[in-house]
Write a structure and sequence with these properties.
single chain; about 525 residues; alpha/beta; six-stranded mixed beta sheet; 17 strands
Length: about 525
Amino acid sequence: MRSNYFRLFIVAALVIFVVLLTYFTGGVTKSYPHLIYIPIILAALFWQVKGGVIVALAAGLLLGPMMPVDVAAGVPQTLVNWITRLSIFVLVAFVSGFSIKELNKSHERALEQNLISPTTGAYTSTKLHQNLEEKIGRREHFSLVSIKLINIEQISKYTEHNAALKLVQALIDDLAEAFGRDEIYTSGYSEIDLILSSDPAEIERLKEIVKRHSSELKIKEFTFQLYSHIGIFQYRGSDTSPVSVYGKARIAWEQGDNQKSGIYFYDEKFDQERKFLLEVSGSLSDAIRNDDFYLVYQPQISLAGKQIVSIETLARRDRKGKQAVGPAVFIPLAEDLGLMPDITDIVLAKAREQITVWRDQGLSLDVSINFTANELLEDKCIQKIKELSEIQKDNSADLIIEITERIISERPEQIKSQAIKLRAEGVKISIDDFGTGFNSLSRISHLPFDQIKLDKYFIDNLADPQTKDLVDNIIKYAHKTDRSVVAEGVETKEQLEILISLGCDIVQGFYFSKPLSAEKFEEFLHEFLTK
């Protein structure tokens, strides 16, 4: 509204200016009256034909019968003269207004074409953002649905591109029939978005359509199943940005298994976790350059002699005032980014330094360190492990390498080969997180290992008779084959007593101590020995 008033003011001011300029320069005999075309064309631009003609009529009258030919002599204009001028003004206004109107229509058609995907024929995400902005501005409540076709690109690789596109087009057509084509938007051909009402019935109808299109289908000699994730964000006025609303619907479908279709509502906790992981991965290179890693040590207690016989070395990342990040978070990210060798070098260097200090102090403890499959397959890493083992031997202690059960199943022969080399150098091998992978005792029995480390899951469920029996059998098997068993995650006295009764060798967990810095561990050790 304010913009329209401003336009009206500008046009009126220009008309008055031209009229006054014509009058004070002597009348219409000079060329100044021609300046009136400026406000006439402006009016046509602002309000098209109608606005231009109105201003042209007003200008024609002000510069016609109301304006003398010669102001000083008081000679009026003839009827033919001012009628002719007024007609020209109206003609200019009409032509300008009509031309501008057609140009605007052509521009709108071009814009509309740009908002339609040439691939799918549906509106693009640009149009989606425009419509979201309008709905947010009107404070409407709605559900934004984002459908991600997880494996459509893989399907297109093994079939003709048009065949995959036909699958997408068929889904779009069914959605258009159910909800209207104006509510459907696409990004490429692997993502379809819809704006639906808050009616739960629409969501149910959507599920049925997507399920129908997720059944097995045969293209030439291949049989496929289209997997899709449906992300839903229910807008209730909390966000003011279309980008934020769109982002939350897409974040919703990032949940779930990529080999299974599913429907997922936006989860703020999941969103925060993704942001956290993004921040951690994005700053890992800087953390390596700045040496933002440190080690903590968790005591492992022998149940036979109630002594601290070993420690597990765990890496942590110092985030400068933010919550510290453990290896379960940063190691998978580092592996994906190819940064794990650099982190391993840092961890081994710090472990070597601390073990040397403890050796010089006469502190003899076995030390265990976790390694990934990729690390163990690197000859450079193996050499550093051997060097660390030599320091431990000088201290009459062992170096224990912990390998998760999962990575054994991924590369069994390569891991076995490296384990044989390490054991030949006096390094002990521990199977970490036992019971959570894909192996059984029989499948890992061919590996040269010295220790089984029970996963915390078993310890948490020791009160269950079946779990207890399973743990009992694992411990008996280990002892029969001359191996020891470590239980991690021991947090209660009841768990400890059950493990003692089953003959478990070593325990670690918060019941005794959380992971400690080197200084805190030394204090804990002193207190433990003086009890």
